Amino acid sequence: MADTPVPLADRLRTIASWAVVPALLAMQLFDLRRALVGPGWIWSTFLLGFTLASVLLAVLAWPRLRQFGGGGWRTQQPALTVVVAGFTLLLGYALVSALVSGTPYPTSRTAPDAIPPDTFAFAPMIYRLVPLATAFVTMTTAVLAVLVIDPVRRLQRLWWAAVVVVVSCYALWPRGVLVHRSFRMATGMAGSATLHLVLLLACGVLLGAAVSGHRRVLSAIGAALAAVGVVLTGSRSGLLSLAVFVVLVGLWFLGRVSARLVVALAVGGVVAAGLLVAFVPYLQRLLSFSDEGRSANLHTSLRILGHGWRQWVFGAGSGRVWPWYAFDARYWIQPWRSMVNSSQGRLLTNPHSVLLGVGVELGLVGLVLLALVLVPLVIVLVRCWTRARRSGGTEASDLALLAVVAGLVAFLFDYYLLKNFAVSFWWWFVVAAALTSPPEVSRDGS
Length: 446
Description:
Blueprint: H1 8-29, H2 45-60, H3 62-65, H4 67-70, H5 72-76, H6 78-100, E1 107-110, E2 118-121, H7 126-147, H8 154-180, H9 195-212, H10 216-232, H11 236-253, H12 259-279, H13 292-305, H14 309-314, H15 325-328, E3 339-342, E4 345-348, H16 354-391, E5 393-395, H17 396-406, H18 421-436, E6 441-443
Helix pairs in contact: 1-8, 2-7, 6-7, 6-16, 7-18, 8-9, 8-10, 9-10, 9-11, 9-17, 9-18, 11-17, 16-17, 17-18
């Protein structure tokens, strides 16, 4: 009897379910922050690419999206619903804030054709709005890319994506050394200051796979390489995030596996990290947490908040303090050490902190909406922790979620979700996969 033909829609969904792997590889190979046309071009590669991908994926994922109407989605995936809705509300509020808050603070900017070269200028409104649209389509593309995958195959696709991320980081490291003239690990997806979050999430995915028995040896090796890669980025926030992740993993398995094994692994990790820092000169910056630029940025931010209660509640206005996209789009030339002089004081070209950026530009209202994005992740992790303690089993998605929560430490030191869109895409993909994948449980020690 002839095999039943596979419907075209199912074939397209299968192809689309693998598309995230080459997409991540392309992000690793190329710096897609730049526009398709020369300096000053507004429409970024991310905005155009993710918009097209969102439309195509929405069509393919429509059968599952229809569950929204019947309440099935809200019942089965309440955490992801809240996270997506919270971020959408945050972007909506930021859009209104940008439109009604007035012109940006006058800032000394360097324009390509300015005479004299250093002039005081305002960022055009479009450079404040495009990043918000890009942040939205980045989220929708990542979430839809997960929804189009058959639920039972989501962790498998996530595993391959994590492997590609880790392998490409090491494969492209020599090229990054030549481009950046630094031995700190960096790729097209992210510089050395932000790549650590990419590797930390991959580490959680692969460690979860190893624990659940999926390609155990390869997964364990990949997780170890990802953890070492975090250190090799030379990022201090990355080191803090990794330390939090190690502590959380130790607490997760404490009492369910040999305490000696947990202690031995922890000591081995600390010793290995210590030797790297001691004998690799460029990693010795990990021992210093002082940063003049960030200090000046924080001082000026607090001065702006001091203008009155309206600033504290509603914020100064989206893109009014840090019109960073004007630099990424090369409307203005990147200044030395990313520092600029504004009417309020010295600032970095971007907040370098999610909490600082949202708090200063969007106020307490923005922070509440941001909490709708981040707090549910912690709540779900606590519930997983309770379930694991009660059942004695660990799901593969548990450790991926553990890495997501540990990675929130990095949100204090760099600007994600609203910037760094390649990293943000990977973050959203891991979050959506971890929150929607069905249980894949392995008894500890098996």
